[in-house]
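Predict the 3D structure for this chain.
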Amino acid sequence: MDIRTRESMNEAETLDEIDDSRGVYTISVAAELVGAGVQTLRLYESRGLVEPARTPGGTRRYSNDDIERLQRITALLEDGLNLAGIDVVLKLQDENARLRAQRKE
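Done. Predicted structure below.
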């Protein structure tokens, strides 16, 4: 095995080990990933639907978990819910996930 192959394997292992809650995407990348505008993501944040991490300089960093949440928001909007309804649904889903995790312990 040559050095490049080992380095590639180490990179792949590192990418697989990235915590899904770690903020890695800028707002423009996150917006592109979910097919929404940057201002839309800012609106979702102002409504409390998503809480991206912030760098010390204040730049938003979206995690894989945030991207999944944004995709759920988009799907709920397409189903006809408004942002207030989406807020209720997301809170119920979060509580359900918390209770399931607690039950597994």
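The chain has five helices and two strands.
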